[in-house]
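Risk register update: the risk of archive-format incompatibility is retired. Evidence:
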Amino acid sequence: MHFGSPLIAADILNTTTSIKRANIYLMESKKKIYDILIHNVQIWKKKNKAHKIDFHVSYGKFSDSFNKLKDQFNHRIPSFLFADPYGVKDMKYSIFSYFMENFYKPEILLNFMYYFPKRFIPTRENAFKYEDTFYEIFETDEWLASVKFAKESFEEELTSFYVSQLKKIAKFVFPYRIDFPGSRRTYYYLIHLCNHYLGALLMKSSFAKHTHGRVFWVGKNASQMLLTEGKEFVIPKVKEYLQEKYNDTSIKFQEIIEQNIDSTEYLESHFSDAIKVLENEDKIYVERFPKLTKIKQELSSRIDKNCMIYFDTFPTVKRKSLMNQTKVEYGTYAINHIECCSHGCKYPCYANLMSRSWGKIKNYEEWLHPKIVENALDILENEIRQCKENIPFVHLSFMTDPFMYDALNKRNYKHIKELTLKIIEKLNKNNIKVTVLTKGLLPSELKSERKYSRKNEYGITLVSLNQDFKKKFEPFSAPFDERIETLRKLHDIGCKTWTSIEPYPTPNIIKQDIDEILNKISFVDKIIFGKINYNRKSSNFEENEEFYKKTTIKIIEFCKKNGKEYHIKEGTPYTSEETSRIFNK
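Archived output:
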């Protein structure tokens, strides 16, 4: 014996642990089939003695049975209506409208027998013979004006009109085309209605699972996708669609799904895969919430509903000022044109601590999400005009990183890099020297003498070469070797380079030889050295003072021996005000 869809559904409901009790209302207008249905329900009950399904079987037209029973329905529980008529005469719009409006979490799957209207109303004149019937289906006569009755467009126009009418009672409506077995002619449409995007997603993905990735059924003979239906052909189309629709905007991934899941044939997986490709191609920026995985605290690569997708844009903030006179002893003016920092350093990071105390961020997660100052260049133009004669040089940056590294995609953030380069170029055009310090990668664009002054000085922070230390204290900064390599390339073409060995850790944090670091960056012109601060473990190290004295002496001796300028930071042994103006030359 083969049970039909109602009893197949009963089997599923009966084995679903999250469902305590379920009602199934079966309405049948043909007496012979009604009798078979009653018989099959009895067999099912005997087979499933401890079932949790209450069956209600009624004989008569669907609309009549529904109206008689609607007061008995429990309107406060999730409800699903499957309308499967023999034609279209009993597909009353008013019933579907009532169901979607009055039931809790309503969902409808209706069989729109397209074959019948195509057969019986091939001309506009014929349509008037069935005017009352189709008024009940569409709840309007407007379809007569919308459908041109042309052979090549009748199906699309009629179905589209019906879907547009159903969209008035449901947020998400999607028609799944079903062809005649063995024929590429439409037999009927299964039209799905729901009010939550997850319902639309689940139905669409479930349908595609059983139709080889399609959202239509072309018969048993089509057992495989055509070559042009594979993801390698679909994803480029989705990429183009997304870029065209959302160019220069930002939007949540959930909103992309909600706006497109029932207006395109694309699946959720198509959208997420296309976004991953666009991200890999550096054409979009994906801001993930949360940014880190729960257990391992690694960078998440998922595309989920909370992701913000920036199509050739980037998160921004506005400021009233940009340049500030810094209190850092070897600086004069500084620009921090990015808020927060994706490197997530845990020395702890002074900038992170200060941002929390100022109320700019609440936690580490917020700190990992950088934002650029969108009006930075306009502000800078005004500030340069007002005080450029008093600016010896400008440092980028003390409270953030001007060439911030995107560890997930193993490159610098494009929009941060572009803004930083524009700032350097603007300052240089006004004869203002720039010093740069980064844990990211110094870009090759800085080689251009036409845009960037050779007076500029480019530096990297390097306090260790140990990978375990990096994973713990600088988890998402650029790899050490790549940092050094980009610095060396600038040095080799004649740019001035420097290294900040700060905050340098004590041996109880990591045992290492300062000479190894000095050998790695022996090509630079200047070195700045400083102890680690705000770290309880380092502060409690018994030989803290002695350790930094010995290390500082090594730094000074190395620099004197190799003809390099140096400065020892305040708070570190052997600091000197004489060397604090290391960049003023």
